[in-house]
Amino acid sequence: MGQDMKILVFSDSHGRTVDIYDAIERETPDGVIHLGDYTEDVRELRRAYAYSSMPIYAVRGNNDFDSDFPMFIVITLGGVKMYLSHGHRERVYGMSSGVMANRARENGCALAMFGHTHRLFLEQIDDIMVFNPGSISLPRGGKKSYGRLTIEDGGFTIEPMFV
Fold first, then answer.
1. Fewest C-beta in 10 Å: which of 7, 80, 91, 161?
2. What are the backbone dihedrals phi and psi of residue 117, each rounded to the nearest 5 degrees, phi first?
3. What is the pLDDT of residues 102-141, one digit of tens each?
4. For residue 71, which phi and psi values (nearest 5 degrees)?
5. Please, are residues 47 and 22 in contact by the beta-carbon 8 Å criterion?
């Protein structure tokens, strides 16, 4: 089994980070995931929390041109293996998410997370949970949002959170 963790999941901040900082200060997570657009916001977060041992994982989005960030990553946190991508390379326009579940399955993951659409999405597709936290700054069709990933005893829950 893995260690219990609380991870905050953000996407599509597009240079507007005040709500990210507010959520981090309020929730005091064990880690942060940013699913792209903008990686410069991730650099800013890493500088701001350089004193902390809190890891910040990130992938590149379609508006990011920084080769220091990967297009996707597979990570394991608290015993939960997950596939992280912005989603534009997988063409996740609209609400299509089957391709994300397939990518997660191909990589032996239980969870796939993506951004890009600026729309909140949470669905179990066969054996894979697929989550898009929406946009923390520029939502389409809803409120600004992010996700709270709670990992306990090797299992996980995801809660959409609204700003």
1. 91
2. -80, -15
3. 999 999 999 999 998 999 999 999 999 999 999 999 999 8
4. -70, -35
5. no
Domain count, the chain: 1
DSSP lists the bridge partners of residue 112 as 83, 130
Strand, coil or helix: 18: helix
Q: Which domain holds residue 58?
A: 5-162
Sequence-distant (≥ 6) Cβ neighbours of residue 43 within 8 angstroms: none
Cβ pair 83, 113 in contact under 8 A: yes
CA distance 94 to 133: 14
Residue 87, judged by CB atoms within 10 A of its CB (0-12, 13-18, 19+), counts as buried
Whole-structure pTM value: 0.94
Identify the CATH number of the domain in which residue 132 sits: 3.60.21.10
The tens digit of pLDDT for each residue in 64-98 reads 887 789 999 999 999 999 999 998 777 666 555 78
Beta strand residue intervals within 26-110, DSSP E: 31-34, 56-58, 72-77, 80-85
Q: Which residues contact 103 (CB under 8 A, 6 or more apart)?
A: 72, 83, 85, 90, 112
